[in-house]
Write a structure and sequence with these properties.
Length: 175
């Protein structure tokens, strides 16, 4: 089990008692745009996912962390599509609306970057963010991700196409 501690938050792997909370979050259609979800998950599917949450990133190719502040779950942050050959992974983050604009996303992303570069020895992290998601773009840029390009009509959501930015952070200590 991986746990990362910051000043105000903790990132921890999923636990069995997260099932009801995760079920509510994963099946909230407002979040599907950022998660690329297209259909609801069953509790059985999520229970199986949680049961394998302890598997290391080298085997599972992903890590999912619950962002916790004062024993309250405030969001999720993921490393996904881990590529051991090229030492890179994608990053995704979700802060529940009532916890936004409190600095939790910045602290969570900073913890994840430090863990990825120092302990997992990754060379780079990347993110794909809809161009109209200005809060997420500012978050990634605040932590030195650079916009590397724009993909036109990349995602189809709410009966329309949206552009996305590709953002990238290179581990400067790795060069």
């Amino acid at each position: 089990m991986v746990s990362l501690k910051g000043n105000n938050i903790q990132l921890r792997t999923l636990e069995t008692n997260d099932i009801d909370w995760l079920f509510a979050v994963e099946n909230d259609e407002k979040f599907w745009e950022i998660s690329n979800t297209t259909q609801a998950f069953t509790k059985e599917e999520l229970a199986a996912y949680i049961a394998h949450a302890h598997i290391d990133i080298y085997t599972a190719k992903q890590y999912r962390f619950v962002i916790v502040c004062k024993n309250e779950r405030v969001g999720l942050i993921d490393l996904f599509d881990y590529d051991s050959q090229h030492q890179r992974a994608g990053v995704g983050i979700l802060i529940l609306p009532k916890f936004q604009v409190k600095g939790y996303a910045t602290e969570a992303l900073a913890l994840l970057i430090a863990h990825s570069f120092k302990h997992l020895k990754m060379h780079q992290l990347y993110a794909t963010v809809a161009t109209d998601n200005l809060n997420s773009i500012r978050l990634f840029q605040k932590l030195h991700f650079k916009i590397m390009g724009t993909k036109k009509d990349w995602i189809f959501i709410n009966n329309r196409y949206k552009d996305t930015h590709s953002l990238q952070l290179i581990n400067k200590d790795d060069q």
